[in-house]
Amino acid sequence: MRSFTYERASTPAQAAASVSSRQGAKFIAGGTNLLDLMKLEIETPTHLVDVQDLGLDQIERTEDGGLRIGALVTNTALSAHDAVRNDYAVLTRAIAAGASGQLRNKATTAGNLLQRTRCPYFYDTDMPCNKRKAGTGCAAIGGFSRQLGVIGISEACIATYPGDMAVALRVLDAVVETVRPDGETRVIPIADFHRLWGDTPHIETALEPGELITGVTLPRPIGGQHFYQKVRDRRSYAFALVSVAAVIQSDGSGRVAFGGVAPKPWRVAEADALLPNGAKAVVERAFQGAKPTEDNKFKIPLAERALAGLIAQARS
Amino acid sequence: MEFNAPAGRNLFDDAKIVGKSTPRIDGPLKVTGTAPYAYERHDVADNQAYGYVIGSAIAKGRIRSMSLDDARRAPGVIAVVAATETDPVGTSDYNNAPLFGGREIAHYHQAIACVVAQTFEQARSAAMLIRTDYERDEGAFDLEAAAPDAPLASKAHKQGDFDAAFDAAPVKIDSRFHTADESHAMMEPHATIAAWEGPKLTLWTSNQMVNWAKESMGEILGIDAENVRVDSPYVGGGFGGKLFIRADAVMAALAARAAGRPVKVTLQRPLIPNNTTHRHATIQRIRIAASRDGHISAIAHENWSGNLNGTNGENATAQTPSLYAGPNRLIANYIATLDLPEGNAMRAPGEAPGHLALEVAMDELAEALEMDPIELRVRNEPDSAVPGRPGRKFSDRNLVRCLHEGAERFGWDKRSATPGAIREGRYLIGMGVAAGYRGAPTMASAARVRLQSDGRLIVETDMTDIGTGSYTIIAQTAAETMGIPLEKVSVELGDSLYPVAAGSGGQWGAASSTAGVYAACVNLRRAIGEKLGFDGDSATFGGGRIEAGGQSFAIGDAGELSADGEISFGEFKKEYNVASYAGHFAEVAVDIYTGETRIRRMLAVCDAGRILNPLSARSQVIGAMVMSAGAALMEELAVDPRFGFFVNHDLAGYEVPVHADIPHQEVVFLETLDPIVSPMKAKGVGELGICGPGAAVANAIYNATGIRVREYPLTLDKYLDHLPEIN
Amino acid sequence: MTAPADTRMSVQLTVNGSEHAIELDTRTTLLDTLREHLKLTGTKKGCDHGQCGACTVIVNGERINSCLSLAVQHQEDEITTIEGLGTPDNLHPMQAAFVKHDGYQCGYCTPGQICSAVSVLNEIRKGVPSHVTDDLTGPMQASNMEMRERMSGNICRCGAYSNIAEAMAEVAEA
Fold first, then answer.
1. Active site residue ranges of B
2. Is residue B450 classed as helix, strand or coil in its secondary structure?
3. What gap in Å lies between CA C48 and CA B348, rounded to an integer?
4. For chain C, which has fewer Cβ within 10 Å, the N-terminal or C-terminal residue?
């Protein structure tokens, strides 16, 4: 871990300005992913702006009946919030499926959106990795790719976005709110927040330098039955092979997003529309154009089977 | 004391302390965080500096150059020890991979440098400033590719005419299995504090075999082993991974010399799987033929593994000569040369992966015979002669009882013989069984017992407690033998200044080290008798008092007295096959949609002679069952054959079972005694517990689904497309 | 390459009821602060990457991985480590239950397991849902599966899980 200076910001705008004004500065909230990566010098900030005092830890109803979640609301607090449990259960279930109790107590809503990939070649600094060091190549292609992406990936990178919470946010059509260094705020639909890798896999989100997430807004509740199924090799404390977030209405229609398969939570509107036709139809459409490896091609039938299980549960 | 004939009746047959469930005497320290592990010993040496180890970025080749200047100039740096500036250190009998020094690289993450600084943060940061340029060689990293040309590791064992008998038999199976490279993944990383005083080196470290460590450190550094002191009172897990000196100790010693002050080094977790040792992957082919009534006529077990230098592989055939009867036999063990990190002992080396194959093969044979798998095993229970080791006989063996008692307790009669027949909601339910066999070796073991004038007793031995419960069983043995309450005994372990014990490995520790303590106590009884004027051997020691020849003494009357003693084992044992046995049972639920396996129940019925402390012995068994479940379901060091390394080299990538994976576990110990083992008549259980449960899980998955996967771990991707259609 | 002076900071922490003011390299994790600076070595370093749970401590009433937190992020925080729960002569009920049920073997993950176990029972009491909670709106039970799921961030390679669950059940029922 390289040396860095540290400050605590007191307002979002000040935090954003502070990060944008110093070369190599980064925000730190829970730190559960950033510090992990700093120890390996995958992240090498020279200055950390701690955002914990910004007061962004509230959950409140919006005027249109939705929910506004402060950027610093912890995973635990968000998953346990009554409104979330009652009206957005897919979010509670997704969060509870991720990481461990200790990590969820520290991990924040914004930080979780920014969680970086768990590709093992990204984590091993002796390996080529375009995401870690642009232009060095991708060791994962042709390597051990069982956990890695099957769709939305590129010739430069086949890593996945590894989180769970964002997969639920994707079916809920959440909106990310930010403040830029100049104090301007903007909103980014969750669908546009994570980028596909293309040939710049080191650029992972729509955020601009110094732009700070201040919150996430959920539209008004959509009813239906909420499911989050996470399939993994061990029963807990592991990243997904495949996860499925689904909200299924009584008429069989609904929304579905997949985790562990792509650079972002993977949701395809045309596939949603096929939900009444069953899992096979949805997955065929959602994974159209998939380019799995020999190691990870099982993820597509697995996604289908996992979704089929949820549809059956919804019907029972 | 030489143990040169089967044990007769002795004081342990009327034991009041040995054999009783006893909470660990070191428990209060462990649960309060006050038991000191290697890296934490701030008190043992002043002015400790921090070392940080860097591993090679290539698997095979050599270092062209290392740029060290930036690291040397970095804040707080005291010294940099680099491979290019150090002659290769020695290797001992126990090491295969080079530990440090010189330009040649034999495996990925071989230690190439250690940076010493005032603080951990400075050392880590400076270490990453080292730039190394390599010349990469091609290597052999693919066991499957190397196996066909691999030579025999030792002469094949042939009995009768396997080929003819196999060809002629009416029922047979021929199966090929793969078991994965596995990581010990003990929770305490390898760690050492090293300090020099003139020619004398002290290592506060985490090591299972203190005397091996001392001797080999002498060879590695080219110094007199008598100048090496090793202290390892608490070991945060080893499982074979801390049997030997590893880079932490070597680097700490070299760095402390370079820095001129004590240095502490721990291997960072992502370095451990490739820098240290692992269990080798195996390929196994098993052929078994039987008559229609289930008697095995021919059995062949062939095994392939690979290692550096083409030596010291994973011999998964280890149990096969002893487990089942059958006149025509073939055992062959092949070893390929691979350039992966060093394969070496991990909990029940050989037998653990051997059971994953053999005990599934037996399940397949039972199915081919349309016979209950327990009945098949019972029918092939050998008589007193060891089937695959002519001239040897079994000591106490109760495998059939284990299987029968297990069947009754587990509700085996509720198992459907037809696979895929039982469904509960979205789950397919199945039960599986496996036999367990693990040799029960003993090793010479010594101890010192020091009687205090207040009647307290101090036991000193370089025996280690790696979670096995050594502290407690040693205290129980000493208390029993000296006739004093357990609370009057304190136990000091793991210091090479103490008499040399068996150490912790090969599940020999419990049986051997307690026998050594017994030997020392017998000598102390004699010494007390000499001092107080009675015959120590015929006196009665009990309740803190001694009754001898009509006289009565308090044990403290003798004042301070010390006695050493050692148990050694005579030739007579060579006639015997001494082993521990188990019946392992598992019930699983397999998700019909996703293929995820949930273990619902596990049971082990064990035959291991006297159980010295049923509480901690049970823990040994359940822990081994967890590790075996891990091997069956999830554990695999993934090899990248392009770069020649284990890719998933941390605890996120290498998944071991977590709480959620493991249900309540049952363990039953049969009340047996084995007089061939030692005066304690006790055998180890720590490795017995990993021999069979994984196969029971695999057989249960088959019973649940009707899908037989022979490539471990049994992850869902390997059978998803065979699960029932869903729509 | 001299580090700028402001890469050291003063940090005030309350650990097990005692206040500490320490000057630290900003890079120092809470874990290393406890182990190397305050010499409270009961909190263990198993992986230093949030992958094992051995470093679990309780901060302001909630358990966290102290390896993935910088000390400077914890100004004025109240930290409870294993040493603060009980001592060998005066064990916390969870510590005593671990001894009774042999909920450990090598002991290295044990302090983290115990800090988690104490916290898990609190989390269930407070109604925090888990991955295995079927009814998200009903009352929480300290069932075997709930405890196992919630304890899964604490790896025990010795495999004491079954015994830990029994120790926790005893404390939960007390």
1. 687
2. strand
3. 29
4. C
Contact status, residue B101 vs residue B89, Cβ threshold 8 Å? yes
Of A77, A33, A90, A84, nearest in space to A230 by CA? A90
| Dist. CA B645–CA B647, nearest whole Å | 6
Cα distance between residue B719 and residue B172, in whole Å: 24
Contact A32, A165 (CB under 8 A): no
Reported as a pLDDT band with limits 50, 70 and 90, residue C5 is low
The C-alpha angle B141, B143, B147, rounded to 5 degrees, equals: 130
Q: What is the pLDDT of residues B598-627, one digit of tens each?
A: 999 999 999 999 999 999 999 999 999 999
Q: Is the pLDDT of residue C3 over 60?
A: no
For B370-394, what is each residue's pLDDT tens digit?
A: 999 999 999 999 999 999 999 999 9
Given this model, what pLDDT does residue B91 score? 86
Whether B658 sits inside 8 A of A236 (CB atoms) is yes
- Pull the structure tokens for residue B530: 């000499």
Residue contact C152–B656, C-beta within 8 A: no
Tokens of B99: 């530990």
Cross-chain residue pair B726–A305, CB shorter than 8 Å: yes
- Sequence-distant (≥ 6) Cβ neighbours of residue B371 within 8 angstroms: B294
C73 CB neighbours in chain A (<8 A) are 28, 31, 50, 52
Interface test with B, best of C15, C162, C164 (most B CBs within 10 A): C162
Judged on CB neighbours under 10 Å (0-12, 13-18, 19+), B447 is buried
Q: Is C27 on the interface with B (CB under 8 A)?
A: yes
**pLDDT band at residue B99, thresholds of 50, 70 and 90?**
very high
- Pairwise CA distance, residues B45 & B66, whole Å: 32
Question: CB–CB of C14/C61 below 8 Å?
Answer: no
Do A108 and A29 meet the contact criterion of CB atoms below 8 Å apart?
yes
Position A169 pLDDT exceeds 60? yes
pLDDT at B92: 79
Give me the total of CB pairs closer than 8 Å, taking one residue from chain A and one from chain B. 108
Tokens 């490539």 — which residue? B711
Q: Are C7 and C26 within 8 A, CB to CB?
A: yes
Backbone angles phi, psi at B519, to 5 degrees: -60, -40
Question: Which residues make beta-bridge pairs with C62?
Answer: C59
Backbone angles phi, psi at B428, to 5 degrees: -95, 135
A233: closest CA of chain B, how far (Å): 6
Q: B351 and B687 in contact (C-beta within 8 Å)?
A: yes
Residue C174's pLDDT is 87
Q: How confident is the model at residue B93 (pLDDT cuts 50, 70, 90)?
A: confident
Q: How far apart are CA A58 and CA A80, in angstroms?
A: 13
**Structure confidence at residue C1 (pLDDT):** 39
The amino acid occupying position A32 is: T
Is the model's pLDDT at C4 over the cut of 80? no
Strands (E), C72-136: 78-80
Length of chain C: 174
Residues in chain A: 316
CA dist A93 and A168 (Å) reads 8
Measure the CA–CA gap between B294 and B169, rounded to whole angstroms: 11
Q: How far is CA B64 from the centre of its chain?
A: 38
Nearest to B530 by CA among B551, B554, B561, B498: B561
Average predicted confidence (pLDDT) for chain C:
96
| Average pLDDT of every residue of chain B | 97
Structure-model confidence comparison of residues B155 and B94, the more confident one:
B155
Helix (H) or strand (E) holding A180: none
When the pLDDT of each residue in chain A is averaged and rounded to a whole number, the result is 97
Give yes or no for a contact between B695 and B432, defined as CB atoms under 8 angstroms apart: yes
> Three-class SS string for A226-254?
EEEEEECCCCCCCCCCEEEEEEECCCCCE
CA atoms of B153 and B158, how far apart (whole Å): 15
